[in-house]
Amino acid sequence: MDPIRNPYAPGAGQRPPELAGRDRELAQFAVTLERVAAGRPERSMVLSGLRGVGKTVLLNALRGQAVTRAWGTGKVEARPDRSIRIPVAQAVHAAVREVSHRHRDPDRVDRVSGVLKSFALRTQQADRKGMRWSPPVDAVAVRGRADSGDLELDLVEMLTDVAALAGDLGVGVALFVDEMQDITVDELAALCGACHEISQQGAPLLVVGAGLPHLPVALAASKSYAERLFRYVSVDRLPRDMAERAWRVPAGTEGVTFEDDAIEELYALTDGYPYFVQAYGKVTWDAAVGSPISKADVAEAAPEAEAELAVGFFGARFDRATPAERDYMSSMAELGDGAVATAEIAQHLGRRPQSLSPARDGLIKKGLVFSGERGSVAFTVPHFGRFLRSR
Ligand SMILES: Nc1ncnc2c1ncn2[C@@H]1O[C@H](COP(=O)(O)OP(=O)(O)OP(=O)(O)O)[C@@H](O)[C@H]1O
Ligand SMILES: [Mg+2]
Questions:
Q1: What is the mean pLDDT of the chain?
Q2: What is the pLDDT of residues 227-267, one digit of tens each?
Q3: Which of 8, 45, 73, 117 is the one with CA 20 to 30 A from 107?
Q4: Ligand whose nearest atom lies closest to the CA of 212
Q5: Can you tell me the mean pLDDT for 299-316?
Q6: What does the pLDDT look like over 67-124, one tens digit per residue?
Q7: Cα(124)–Cα(85) distance, integer angstroms
Q8: Which residues pair with 74 in a beta bridge?
Q9: Is the CB of 51 under 6 A from ligand 1?
Q10: Considering the entire predicted model, what is its pTM?
């Protein structure tokens, strides 16, 4: 069918034509926003799940809810080995801009901008690598606030002031942190500590995180009270009825339907993983002769969809690994699809467990593998074991 009208959207952070199966999270977050703006105690949200399940898309949708309520919002994408100080300053700067033009007291706005500037200027030279952003030039740095060099303390001071500014307008500030598992332990502890302190003051600030499945474990390791700070939401593959919505609703807006066994086949092929839902939906649409889309159309499209995934979704990730890391992953794939004991991998490769630590750590850093439990690892990418076995 006409590829120009194809509604499906496979891609990183690409907003799907129908955000299926996330109503509960959206409803919960709406309540959270109202409660926080009213100064009531509330836990923030942390989304975790495998690659391509829709964490970024959901995070963006939650941000959209905050924007609709006229909150100040900003977003950070954490990176391994990089301090969050400048990215956080950038995100908070965006949030301040969103609220400041409605604020009646320009002196208060200037002071908060000055605190933000002193927070950003405290960056160590080493942390500045590749960071082009510099704090707003028109603000005068406020000495002695948010510039101690202790990230937790500085976050508390800076975020308290920014939240108060939004509070003057009856709204709050929400900071969205994607790839949160990439924040170093020390900085994660500082961020949790700051959230903890600020929530005790009842200030209208929310930090919403998203990351790989081991993010809750990483948070708990950084601060023992992290569990009481966040509501952990696991973002997962779509159940059958929701995957069906994700295919049927967008097609429906184009006047196109699916035969039931076509949906059946699509679900069997994708397991309801959102990225695969979009990828197979897109290729199937292009391959289909017309409406209704049939099981034969799906069968025709499947090899192409698989080939596209092999290059783009799986291949691009596999290529980032070193030869030693590839051997490690191949071994994992041969041992099964769930979590695999690291001792078993060592045995399978005929190596001593310690000698494999660099490969394992490298894969974790590259976000290809995670360790949810001590002594075991699993792929962050759904169907990755299957892909490796088919090579
Ligand atoms: N609820 C949903 N319904 C239908 N499609 C979805 C849904 N959520 C996400 N998608 C689609 O899945 C794909 C992946 O989404 P997204 O980039 O948000 O995943 P992610 O979990 O952030 O992945 P990664 O860990 O690689 O960053 C996108 O093409 C998006 O359109
Ligand atoms: Mg993402």
A1: 94
A2: 889 999 999 999 999 999 999 999 999 999 999 999 999 99
A3: 73
A4: 1
A5: 95
A6: 999 999 999 999 998 999 999 999 999 999 999 999 999 999 999 999 999 999 888 6
A7: 9
A8: 175
A9: yes
A10: 0.95
pLDDT, tens digit, for every residue of 312-348? Answer: 999 999 999 999 999 999 999 999 999 999 999 999 9
Q: 3-class SS at 14?
A: coil
Q: Is the CB of 60 under 6 A from ligand 1?
A: no
**Torsion angles phi and psi, residue 206, rounded to 5:** -130, 135
- 239 within ligand 1 shell (Cβ under 6 A): no
- The three-state secondary structure class of 336 is coil
Spatial separation of the C-alpha atoms in residues 87 and 74, rounded to whole Å: 10
- Give the number of other CB atoms < 10 A from CB of residue 123: 17
Both tokens of residue 61?
């949708």
Cα separation, 362 vs 353, in Å, equals: 15
Structure tokens at 191: 């961020």
Which of 57, 181, 236 is the best mutation target for the ligand 1 pocket, counting ligand atoms within 8 Å of the beta carbon and taking the most? 57
Among 278, 309, 383, which residue has the most ligand 1 atoms within 8 Å of its CB, making it the best to mutate?
278
Q: 17-46: per-residue pLDDT in tens?
A: 999 999 999 999 999 999 999 999 899 999
52 Cα: distance to centroid of ligand 2 (angstroms): 7
Which listed ligand is nearest to 53 at the C-alpha?
1
Q: Which helix (H) or strand (E) holds 18?
A: none
If you measure from the C-alpha of residue 7 to the centroid of ligand 1, how many angstroms do you get, rounded to a whole number?
15
| CA–CA dist 290, 278 (Å, integer) | 19
Phi, psi of 264 (to 5 degrees): -55, -50
What is the rounded CA–CA span in Å between residue 195 and residue 207? 7
* Atom nearest to 212 CA in ligand 1: 25
Q: Which two tokens stand for residue 312?
A: 């783009």
pLDDT of residue 128: 61
Whether 11 lines ligand 1, by a CB cut-off of 6 Å, is: yes
Which residue type occupies 71? W
- Tell me the per-residue pLDDT of 341-382, one tens digit each, with 9 for 90 and over: 999 999 999 999 999 999 999 999 999 999 988 899 999 999
Burial (0-12, 13-18, 19+ Cβ within 10 Å), 376: middle
Going by alpha carbons, the residue nearest to atom 18 of ligand 1 is 54
Closest CA to 12 of 74, 62, 63, 54: 54
Q: Mind listing the pLDDT tens digit for each residue in 207-228?
A: 999 999 999 999 999 999 998 8
